[in-house]
Amino acid sequence: MSGSLEAILGHVFQRPELLREALTHRSISGRRGGFSNERLEFLGDRVLGLLVAEWLAERFPTEQEGELGRRLAYLVSQPVLAEVAEAIGLVAAISVAPGEARVGVKKRATVMADALEAVIGALFIDDGLPPARNFVRNAWKAPMQALASPPKDAKTALQELLQAKGKDLPDYRIVSRDGPPHQPVFVIAVSAGPLTGTGQAGSKREAEQVAAGDLLRQLKP
Which of 6, 20, 40, 126 could in theory staple to 121 by disulfide, Cβ–Cβ 3.0 to 4.6 A? Predict the structure, then answer.
């Protein structure tokens, strides 16, 4: 699988162990000598933000910071990361503990997004920004081209839609907060009338955005 994945990434690793680490979920870190993809995900998150910001500045030279910021937030959001991970076939390469695999952990948006960011971190460590940049610009081509205009964040779009329909404002609540202090996992629910959207992410703010996006999809025809 590593060879085919390297073909997808457009990079042959000088240090193949970096790619293995990037694809190792924390559920089996004890089985692999104690490492998981969490550190590479931390790095990859920053590298992805830099590369997407660079690309946006080139692609939209007349836009102001606020418009660029909304585009950036969308392109590095968990739903887009999960979509990209699925599109390139990354899910099959993620290693999780057998018990986690049986309950479908590999297909969770958070797991896919974290693995994708970890892969970007691995590309950066292995050979710097060029391979990471090439991969990002290829893998994010479709979502980038779909942004004809700066997107509204999901919470704002949800509020405006409900107001236009004469409905009450959405109600957000924390369903759960799990994980260690350095890597929390929030589950948020947002309700509007009989409908409820849910979202899971590493911060309360991002989980609210994911939940708002879920509810928006239910409300829009």
Answer: 40
- 63 catalytic? Reply is no
CATH number of 2-145, picked from 1.10.1520.10, 3.30.530.20, 1.10.240.10, 3.40.50.620: 1.10.1520.10
The ranges assigned to domains in the chain are 2-145, 154-219
Determine which one of 45, 83, 126, 208 is catalytic.
45
DSSP assignment of 52-118 equals HHHHHHHH-TT--HHHHHHHHHHHTSHHHHHHHHHHTT-GGG-B--HHHHHTTGGGSHHHHHHHHHH
Active site residue 117: yes
Q: What is the pTM of this model?
A: 0.71
At 101-126, the pLDDT tens digits run: 676 777 788 889 999 999 999 999 99
Say whether domain 154-219 belongs to CATH 3.30.160.20.
Answer: yes
Question: Residue 32: which pLDDT band, with cuts at 50, 70 and 90?
Answer: very low
